[in-house]
Structures are given as C-alpha cells and as structure tokens.
Amino acid sequence: MTNSGTKNKVLWAIVTVLVLVYALFPVMSILATSFKAPSDLTSGTFLPSSGTATTSNYEQILVGDAQGLFLSALRNSIGISLIATFIAVVLATLCAYAIARLDFPGKGLVLTTALAVSIFPVISIVTPLFNLWRTIGLYDTWLGLIIPYLSLTLPISIWTLAAFFRQIPWELEQAAQVDGATTWQAFRKAIVPLAAPGVFTTAIIAFFIAWNDFVYGISLTSTETARPVPAALAFFTGASQFEAPTGAISAAAIIVTIPVVLLVLLFQRQIVSGLTSGAVKG
Amino acid sequence: MTSAIPAPQAEPTSSPETTPSVKTRSTPEKKARPQYSDRVRAERRLGWLLAGPAFIVMLLVTLYPILQAAFESLFQFRLTTPDEREFVGLGNYAVILTDPVWWRDLGTTLIITVITVAVELVLGFALALVMDKALRSIKGVLRTAILVPYGIITVVSAFAWFYAFDINSGYVNSWFDWLPGIDENTNWFAQTGTALFVIMASEIWKTTPFISLLLLAGLAQVPGELTEAAKVDGATWWEQMSRVIIPNMKAAIMVAVLFRALDAFRIFDNVFIMTNGAYGTEVLSLLAYRQSISRLEIGLGSAVSVLLFLCVLIISFVAIRLFKVDLAGTQGGKS
Questions:
Q1: Three-state SS for A21?
Q2: How far is B257 from chain A, CA to nearest CA, in Å?
Q3: What is the count of structural domains for chain A?
Q4: Which residues of chain B have a CB within 8 Å of the CB of A230?
Q5: pTM
Q6: What is the pLDDT of residues A162-193, one digit of tens each?
Q7: Residue A275: which H helix or E strand, with range?
Q8: In chain B, positions 154-173, which contact chain A (CB-CB < 8 Å)?
Q9: Which among A162, B27, B47, B266 is least surrounded, fewest beta carbons within 10 Å?
Q10: Domain annotation covers residue B208
Q11: Does A123 touch chain B if contact means CB atoms closer than 8 Å?
Q12: Which of B66, B87, B108 is the last residue of a domain?
C-alpha cells in the first residue's frame, strides 16, 4: 500500500511539473528575454549569458526613451478596460437580474442576442466603425474604444451573471422582510452579499477580455492619446533605427502580464467557476 | 423601451427560463385576475426596463455596424478619393470571390481552425482529466497555472513564441539542432508550413485552458455511479472513457468545440504579430484588415467583413443542425 502510495505521489509530482512547464514556459521565455542586453539577443540561449543580465530594457520603457510610448499606452489600457468593464457589468447586472428573476417576454431573445454578439467576428465591426469614427470624431479617442469594447465585454457578462443569479436563493429576501427588514434592508443584507462575488468575478473576466483586445486597438487609434498596450507593442521600435525592439517589447510584455498573474493567483477559484458556469451549466 | 412591451392581456407564457422562485411567488395571486394582470404587466415592464439598456447597447455595437458594412460593400469607395464613390451592386463580392487570394486565405483559416481545435480538444481533455483526478492541494496549483495562459494577452503570447523561434533572438534552433531539418539557419517564419506551426502553437497554448475548464465542468456532470458501475463490471480505462464518460459529456464537448472553432476562425493577433500574413499565412480577418484599414478600400473591406460574418453564421448553423449543439439548452439549469 505504501509502495503504490509513493508511486502515486511521484506520478502526480511529474504530472504537476509537466502542467506547470506547459503553462509557464512561454512566460519564462519572454521573462528571460526581457533581461537580455541588446548584444546578447542573438546568443541563441534561453537565459541571458552569465554576467550580462540587465534591467536596461525596463529602464528604457519606464524612465527612458520609450517611456512616453509605453506609459501612455499603459494608462490608456487600464483606463479604457476599466471603464468598459464597469459599464458592461452595470448593464449586465440589471439585465441578468431581470433574466434570472422576472418573467417577461423576449427573455430568450436577449440571451440569444448576447450569444450571437459574442461569436461576432470583431473585424467585421471594425471597418464600418473606422469609417464612422473618422466622420464623427471618435477616431483615436478613449470613447471610440470603450463603445466597441462593450461588444466584447457585455455578452459574456450577461451570460455569466445570469448563471450566477439563477443560483441565488431569492427567498431569503422575503424571509428577511418577514423578519421585519425593509425592502432596501432585505436587499442589502440578504441579496447583495450573495450576488457580490458573482458580479466581482464577472468583472475580472470582462476585464481580461478588454485588456486582451488587439483588433480594435490597432484599427481605431493612431496616436498615444488612445492606443492601448497590445497595439502599442506591435508598433514599438528600437532605441535606434538599427536596433530591434525585442528587449523593450519583452519587458513591456512582462509588465502587462503582472496584473493578469496577480488576479489569477488571488481569484483562481472564482474565475474558474465564472468561466464554466456561464458556458456550460447555467 | 416601453413601446416594445406587448399587450398586457397576453397569457402568461410559461417560458422555460421561469425560475422556481418566480412561480411560487405569483401562484397565490392567480385567484384575483385583474390584480394578477397588473402584476404581470408591471413585471414585464420592469423586465424590459432592466434588460433593455443592455439589449439596445448590444444591437448598437454589432447590428448597426454590420448593416452599415453591408451597405458600404455595395459601393466602390476608397477613403483617399471620397468623391469617386460609385455604386457597383454586388461587384465587390464578385471581385473577391473570383480572386484566388480569398480562397487561399479561407483555406489557411480553415486549416488553422481544424488543427488548433483538434489539438486543443485532445490536450484540453487530458488537462481536464488531470485536474479532475488531482488531490485538492494540487488542484489549486494546477488551476492557477493554467489560468495564466488564459489571462495573458494574445499579443504577448505571440511575441513570446515569436522570439523563441526567431532566427535572430530565438533559442529553439540551437536547442533542437539535432533534429533533421533544424539548424541555426532555419527561418521558421519564411515558409508557410513552419510559420503556421508556430502561429498555431501560440494559439493552442493560449486557448487550451479555456477548453479544458469547460471539459472539466462537463466531467463533473458525469454521474459518478455510472463510472463506478462500469469499473465493477470490469471495464478497462479506455472502455470507461469511450462508453461512459465521453458519451455523457457530449454536450459540453460540442459547446467547447463550437465556441473554440468560431474563435479560431477569427484568428488575427498571432498572425499579425508573427508574419503579418507573409509567406501564405494570411487569414481572412487579416485580409479584411488589409483592405479597409491599410489600403482604405472601404467598399472591398466591407464586403470581406460581410463574407467573414456569413462564414461564421454558416459554421454556427451547420454545427447546430449537424451536431445538434443545443446552445440555448446550455443555460436554463437543466443540465
């Protein structure tokens, strides 16, 4: 028994290491690249050559030449993604509450629309928006990205929240009212604590999606006023014309990956339940 | 939105989504009919008041642009020469559909879609099985690890894979130079096959976690008694898989495959970063982008966009018809 127990343990250790390598290797790869000096980039090794590891790439994008380019993109990405997430979650909370709790005709239509919007090819929306935004002056503005971002964040928020809200025992609200609470008290004390985790999880998932956008970012912006990080990375140039921007891009890539890793570390359980309940169980 | 509310006298439709709590709440009032009608009316109005804004926003950000694109696709229209806008009917579509570039890009897109989804399904299923069987303590670690690719920006993933394979900054060539065909001068991004290989690797790495989480949720719904019974009857591991587990999670598999296929069909970021469509790696999204944003051919670009949209519609329709993927049934608490 103990023998097979150890065997099992070794097996699981191997499997765990394999999964960790699978999941983290590309991240490690770009992390290693971000510490390479320009002269070391062509060395053909995974790690920087010993003694040459440098933080100059990070200095370049945080305090150096590329600072304006990167920091403005970071500000745009954070601002635009947060606002698009906030609007989507507010609208989706109202909508999902109605779907989970009220009986009204057209409920199926709302859910089907959300599904249809979520499989919509983004590039098909970009061409007409590109043209329209140029005419009405939304091209290269925050609002010009926030509006199309809703097409990414709103449908998944509605589905995820509707799934969460269906699982809430709404009878608690009446129970609280029977116990003498006012309507508002009943809602705040009994329902909000149950609904808040779902809303929060939805916000994280919606934020990931907005944070990941590339097509809208490169198509609907042209300058630092609104260009988000993924688009900015694609247009990065080296410190000089003759230098590849590899190091700077890698450093920037690591910086924008940090929030993702933090959110995943803190909320993995919630994210998993949010992703799966919206898509499979309901 | 009030105008959209149908006549208040309509019979209370027993929609399948009706939650139990709503039913129990309105049953007692059934005796007093006028009051009930008022209540139904109020509930319907409130329902649309709450769901309406989200519904309108969704239509505004998708339906309106696609209709606009359909309209503009009927013109020959270049932004650099706005005065020469000319109605050409379906001419743009004729131009695209008779151009080999469209068919080549469609082929590339389909190849990427089929291969990535097939690999992701196998890999994702393996990951789901591992997470399903793992002890509680390891489970958290595994889930956290595989959520990293899920959350990472696609462009970052593209750069990570690109730099690893790149002939200048990469290390893959020196690591694998013992394999036939790989040496320090192998330029992965100068041939269609190898370039597509790296593009698909990045795509697969980034999106397998999503598919595996969907499959994990599907696995959890397979009744444990069935697997136990099969074990007692002496079924091998493979028999348990093919006869009990996989048939019982068919719905989850189908939903995962359809969602991922539609997503893969829209692939853009990885191709844009790694090759920008060079060496026969152009996909349909990139073709649309090149026409409208780079060349400012709004008419042609809109036509490509509409065609791409129609492709997505056809895939969904075929999948739903052929494989009976019940997307609406995935919600509603039945499963």
A1: helix
A2: 12
A3: 1
A4: 153-156, 269
A5: 0.84
A6: 888 888 888 887 888 888 888 778 778 888 88
A7: helix A246-276
A8: 154-157, 159-161, 163-164, 168-171, 173
A9: B27
A10: yes
A11: yes
A12: B87
